[in-house]
């Protein structure tokens, strides 16, 4: 955990800067090519999309929250939210702030009585917690731009995948099935 004043160079402030893009979870679906679950993030101010491939367990945690399905016992992200509440800490935002070697990184911003802290996180965990905490989700503009470039360099189908994701309507975002 890091205090905001000590946060690494190049990351964002709790108030945000023009270097971030606010996104929402557009959906969770299976990648038609790899058959792996992916979260589709949609830029709120434009038509950009960012797919992030996640593991099956993380996808299930997000799917449960998307569908507002109750579980008999708290799932890991529910437990984390409950622990934070017990310590009077609030998740104020999550930021997907880095992309290295095709791996995304995220930071969870917490506030406890005015004391702002950050926690390093996998994006899937940060997103699952953000949904439970009902807080905004951001992506660094650099990450958004680099992800587009990385997708273009992968193979011929990556441009098609990007166009397909950008053109998805509400009815196209099928429910995630295990």
From TrEMBL:
- Superkingdom is Bacteria
Q: Recorded GO terms, molecular function?
A: nuclease activity
Which Pfam families does the record match to this protein? BFN_dom
Q: Which InterPro entries match?
A: BFN_sf, Bi_nuclease_dom
Region ranges (Disordered): 1-20
Residue ranges of every copy of the BFN domain listed in the record: 20-151
Q: Any idea what this protein is called?
A: BFN domain-containing protein
């Amino acid at each position: 955990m890091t205090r905001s004043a000590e946060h690494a160079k190049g990351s964002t402030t709790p108030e945000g800067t023009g270097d971030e893009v606010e996104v929402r979870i557009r959906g969770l679906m299976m990648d038609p090519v790899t058959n792996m679950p992916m979260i589709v993030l949609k830029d709120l101010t434009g038509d950009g999309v960012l797919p992030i491939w996640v593991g099956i367990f993380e996808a299930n945690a997000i799917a449960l929250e998307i569908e507002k399905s109750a579980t008999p016992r708290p799932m890991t992200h529910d437990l984390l939210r409950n622990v934070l509440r017990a310590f009077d800490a609030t998740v104020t935002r999550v930021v997907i702030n880095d992309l290295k070697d095709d791996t995304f990184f995220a930071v969870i911003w917490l506030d406890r009585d005015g004391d702002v802290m950050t926690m390093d996180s996998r994006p899937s965990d940060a997103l699952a917690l953000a949904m439970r905490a009902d807080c905004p989700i951001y992506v660094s503009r650099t990450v958004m731009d680099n992800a587009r470039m990385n997708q273009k360099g992968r193979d011929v189908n990556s441009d098609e995948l990007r166009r397909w994701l950008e053109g998805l309507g509400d009815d196209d975002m099928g429910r995630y099935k295990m």
